[in-house]
Amino acid sequence: MLEATSKDVQAPAGATGSDAERPARMRWAIVAAVVSVAALALLSPSYSLASTVLIYAIAVLGCNLLLGYTGLLPFGQGVFFGVGAYAAGLSFVHLEFQVPAGLAIAMLVGMVVAAAVGSLCILQRGVSFVMLTFAFAMMFGHLVYVFSDITGGENGLRGFPGMSFGFFGSRLMALNTSQAMLGVIAVCFVAVYILLTRVVRSRFGATLMAIRENEDRAAAIGYNTTLFKLMAFVLSGLVTGLAGGLYAMHLGTVPDTALQLDISVTILIMTILGGTGSLYGSFLGAVVYLLLTDYLSQVWDRWQILLAIALIAIVLFLRGGLWGAIEIARSEIGHRAGRRRRRGAGQ
Amino acid sequence: MTIESSGTTHPSDSDEGVPALQAVGLAKRFGRFTALESIDLTVRSGTLHAIIGPNGAGKTTLFNVLTGQLAPSKGTVLVHGESVHHVPVHRRLGVGLARCFQVTNLFPELTVLENVRLAVQGRHSRHAFDCWSTVGRNRGPIDQARQVLERVGLQRVAQRKTSELSHGQQRLLEVAMSLAPDPKILLLDEPTSGMGIDDVPVMERLLTQLTGDYTIIMIEHNMAMTMRVANRIAVLVAGRVLIDGEPDEIRADEGVQRAYLGEGLSA
Amino acid sequence: MSSELLLSQLVNGLGNGLIYFVIAVGFTLVFGLMNFVNFAHGAFVVLGAYFAFELLEREVSFWAALVIAPLLVGAVAVVVERLLLRRLYRMAHTYQIVATIGLAIGIQEVCTLIWGPNQFTLPAPESLSTTIEIGATTYPLYRVFVVVLTATLALGLWLLLERTRFGAMLRAGSEDADMVSCLGINIYLLFSLTFGGAAFLAALAGVLSGPMRGLSPTSGDSFLALAVVVIVVGGIGSYVGALVAALMVAEVQSLAIVFAPAFGEVVIYALMAVVLLIKSDFIVGRLARA
């Protein structure tokens, strides 16, 4: 068999930096998240599109945790997205939950399903793992129609009451404008971004990266790699379930497409497009993909052919995605500045 | 726990009687093929005991049995006088056995320091489930990793990615990884494997320094270096110990010369 | 529930299973030999059916289309392999998957562009559009033909793999491609032929399926999923495994349609999960220790 001669999945390097750097960089992460969200809200053609971008960005963060940091290619993220959406939707429709409770349900269900699916998938490595997640994605897609009296089948889950923000029965605020929705979604995104930033910089995150680099060696030096991978899977399920819940809240319905293979593929594409080298890449991937396709789909019905070309081009020429391009540009600028400095000093 | 360059961490005087590691009547069969046959080996604390022999003699199989990756068909392995028969592979570290591999098996895209820090942390891996506090906050493993790097001479490349190191430096890092969890016994599988002529003296110096503080069992093909650093040498041929003695004895032995067809023993 | 219904469903399962085998065996051969994951494999199935559709529209006979369409798809595959996919062989599987997803999307969209998004079926040839009697039931002759053809194909493939020099090269290459190329065999030619062959088989299965079920540009996903399930159940790279697993999957599906129709599609994934659990170290390890 041909052995891969390059570990090609662009990956964040483990960092054991000095203590002094740490607090500053955490602040940068918060600033980056908030500024990006604000910019998106201002520059996006509509609040609704901005909301969609952030919802998917959350899901892409969940996917990147597995792909960029743990080295797993998860083909079934749409499962957690979809069950999160349906769980939140069902709680809105049948239990008259308000948004926070509905989202909590979505996260919980996402976690549980991830634990169940993950414990089967984690048992396999490499391509077998990918195939398994792919098969589960197909399976759950069919389950929507099997249980159509619960999910509404092809018509989707309907009958949502008005969305409101509040706890234990008391309504604090009605969420009936796109700005209000965007506000809730934006807060969720920033919270998830900060949380995952902490996770990937923790010892847990460092262990995930070790597993990504060399799982056998990680096990040999004492880490229970199966347990770590499962925990990453569950965390990813929680985050992606939240995205699904927000999706349900935002749409006011849960279409049957929410649990189809397409969502899994789309999330994966956004993750790779944005770049697996950092968490910020996940935001970039969602923004560029959704804004571009929003524009292109109005121009050409078969715009997906461009997507196909883009994917192949990325794999051949720019495996680091958009984030990778930024890093290349940064180091180019750094080199040129260095050369200029040296030339200046020589005079 | 700190690693010092004097022999205070692992005093061998008090355990004079009990050897660090003993293999008693070890045998390993794979179906009808006998890889190892009645191996008796005694390794004293603080010594460097080399295992040499032609290819296919069973040296790596012996290592695999010592580290628990393979269960012996017969015989026992004793570490400091206690049998480790029921100790699974990932617990052997706890018993003080650390192994470095013949084929470099590191974490390519992580920094040298991070590689060693992971090896240090791996000793107490349950702390690695901490999802909140940043890596840099836990000075213990980081400081210990830095000390190991200094011991091995790689402190200047601490922030470089492993994939950027030369092969010789990677072999040194392999040794560092096995030193990191502060073991008592080091099993080094061909530490100079693939090394160029400039890198071997560095490894030789390191091995000489480590002997005394650690007990080292080493598989090697580089005869010249082995003769210089080893306290004792066991020669393995076709699964059996042909002779086990001091370097001069080995050099003079006719059986050994025959086994190697007269090649490789001249320095 | 009559025994006739059960019998005819089991025979259906046989036909379906052999078609699943033809689809899966190409996928597993490519993975086994070239360590290459081709997520566009399902798209080749659909492409075969579309090429046949176009040929039939141009008054070509079904029999000719049965051969020409797969050959065309095989040619397309070889071209794509030489121009594009060859560069992916040494990359991590992640990127092979992403690139072939791009290829699959591309094929899907081009098909939609040319033939539209709607479902279609292929007309079965006149001579096969009757039924024959098997025991007490009548059975479509076309399905019998499919069984006979695919069984012959399976046997022929087996002979190719086990009894010819080409097959020996394929099997050796699965074990160690680098070594085989050192023996002077043009490994890249071998790869191209294998990849083209796998696409040929997939397309053939697509043409054969055409009269039996509706196809559309997006059907590729379900064919790919099928291949994945069969291979996971049967073992990656195994010819016999693919055959046994394909038949098992198809029969389980057929039985599910009789006994629990709502779960028809889902049951194959449940089967896969069960098989995985049984095969995995988790269970095997526990049994070994017990």
What structural keywords apply?
heterotrimer, A: 347 residues, ABC transporter involved in vitamin B12 uptake, BtuC, 14 helices, disordered N terminus, B: 267 residues, alpha/beta, six-stranded mixed sheet, four-stranded antiparallel sheet, globular
Q: Which stretches of chain C are poorly predicted, pLDDT < 50 over at least 5 residues?
A: none
Number of helices of chain C: 12
pLDDT averaged residue by residue of chain A: 88
Strand order of the largest sheet of chain A: 1-2
Category by helix and strand content of chain A: mainly alpha
Radius of gyration of chain A: 21 Å
**Overall shape of chain A:** globular
SS class of chain C: mainly alpha
Overall mean confidence score, pLDDT of chain C: 86
Domain count of chain A: the total is 1
User: How many strands, what sense, and barrel or not for the largest sheet of chain A?
Assistant: 2 strands, antiparallel
Question: What's the short story on this structure?
Answer:
The complex is a heterotrimer of chains A (347), B (267) and C (290). Chain A is mainly α.
Model description:
By secondary structure, chain A is mainly alpha-helical. Chain A has helices at 21-43, 47-69, 77-95, 99-121, 126-146, 148-151, 178-201, 203-213, 215-220, 225-251, 261-274, 279-299, 304-317, 321-346, and strands at 164-167, 170-174. Chain A has a single domain (19-299), classed as ABC transporter involved in vitamin B12 uptake, BtuC (Orthogonal Bundle), CATH 1.10.3470. Chain A contains 14 helices and two strands; from the N terminus they run H-H-H-H-H-H-E-E-H-H-H-H-H-H-H-H. In chain A, strands 1-2 form a two-stranded antiparallel ribbon. With 267 residues, chain B is of the alpha/beta class. Chain B contains nine helices and ten strands. Chain B has helices at 59-67, 89-95, 112-121, 139-152, 167-179, 200-210, 223-229, 247-252, 254-259, and strands at residues 21-30, 33-43, 48-52, 74-79, 82-83, 97-100, 185-189, 215-219, 232-237, 240-245. In chain B, the strands form two sheets. Chain B has a six-stranded mixed β-sheet with strand order 6-7-8-3-9-10, sandwiched between helices. In chain B, strands 2-1-4-5 form a four-stranded antiparallel β-sheet, with helices on one face. In chain B, helix 6 links the parallel strand 7 and strand 8. The longest helix of chain B has 14 residues, at 139-152. Chain C is an all-alpha fold and 290 residues long. Helices cover 74% and strands 3% of the residues of chain C. Chain C contains twelve helices and two strands, in the order ααααββαααααααα. Chain C has helices at residues 3-34, 41-57, 62-83, 93-115, 141-163, 165-175, 177-182, 187-209, 220-234, 239-259, 267-279, 281-289; strands at 131-134, 137-140.
